[in-house]
Amino acid sequence: MLIVFDLDGTLIDGYAGITDALGFAMERLGFAPLSEETVRGMVGEGLEKLLERAVGAAHAREGVRLFRERYAVVADEKTFLLPDVPEVVERLAHDGHLLAVASNKPERFSRRILAGKGVADRFFAVAGPDDATPPKPDPAMLLAIMRRAAAPPGRTVAVGDMEIDAETARAAGCRCVLVDGGSRSHEELAAAGADAHLARLGLLPGWIEQVDRGSLD
C-alpha cells in the first residue's frame, strides 16, 4: 500500500513557527500580527494564499519572501512531531507499506523538518508545490507520487487533517483518511466525506490492516 501523508497538522505541529514567521512578515509590512488560533484557521492552501489572506494580494509576494526569511530561522525550534508519529511510521514501514509526504509547505522545508525530527528516512518521496506543480487540492503532487511508486488509486491512501486533503484524494481517485489533532474540529472533519475519520493517528495502522484484508472494500 502507498500511504501519502500531509505534513502540518498530520505529522507535525508547526503552527508556532508558522505564526512566528507570518507575524514577522506582517509587522514589516505594517500589519498587526495574528494569534496562533487565527493562523490555524487560515492555513492549508499554500503559502501564497496564506499571505494573501493576511496582508492582501498587493503585499503577498513580499510577504512570502519575508515569511521564508524568518521561517528558515524558527522552523526547527518551533516544530514538533505530533503524538504517535514515530511509532506509526515505523510500524507501517515495517509492515511493508511505502510512505510519502505531499504538503503545501515548500519541499525544502518539509525535508528539513522531517530530517530534524528523525523520521525522514521512512519516506521515499517528499513533495511540495513549485512553479510546475500547483498546491493541493490540485492532485498533481499526489498523482506524481503515485506514478513514481507505480501505485494504482485502489492501493493508495492519502492521510490528512483538513477538508482539502479529502478533496485532493477524491481528485486522484484514491482513499482518504482524516485524523483529528490539526487545524479542524472533529465535527468539520466528520462532514468532509473521507473514507475514514480517526480520533488519532495511532489508529491508522489498524485501519490499513482492515483495508489490506479487504474487510473495508
Keywords:
alpha/beta; two-stranded antiparallel ribbon; Rossmann fold; 47% helix; 2 domains; 8 strands; six-stranded parallel sheet; 217 residues; single chain; DNA polymerase, domain 1
What would you call the shape? globular
| CA radius of gyration | 17 Å
What name goes with the CATH superfamily of the largest domain? HAD superfamily/HAD-like
User: What percent strand?
Assistant: 5-15%
Largest sheet: 6 strands, parallel
Write the CATH architecture name of the largest domain. 3-Layer(aba) Sandwich
Total count of strands: 8
Strand order of the largest sheet: 5-4-1-6-7-8
- Compressed to H and E, one letter per element, the order equals EEHHHHEHEHEHEHEHEH
- Work out the helicity level: 40-55%
Plain-language structure description:
- The mean pLDDT is 93.
- The strands form two sheets. The protein has a six-stranded parallel β-sheet, sandwiched between helices. Strands 2-3 form a two-stranded antiparallel ribbon.
- The relative contact order is 0.17.
- It has two domains: 2-13 and 80-213, HAD superfamily/HAD-like (Rossmann fold, 3-Layer(aba) Sandwich); 15-74, Orthogonal Bundle (DNA polymerase, domain 1).
- The protein has helices at 15-28, 36-40, 47-55, 57-74, 85-94, 107-116, 140-149, 163-172, 186-190, 204-213; strands spanning 2-5, 12-13, 80-81, 98-102, 125-127, 156-160, 175-179, 196-198.
- The protein is of the alpha/beta class and 217 residues long.
- Helix 8 (163-172) links the parallel strand 6 (156-160) and strand 7 (175-179).
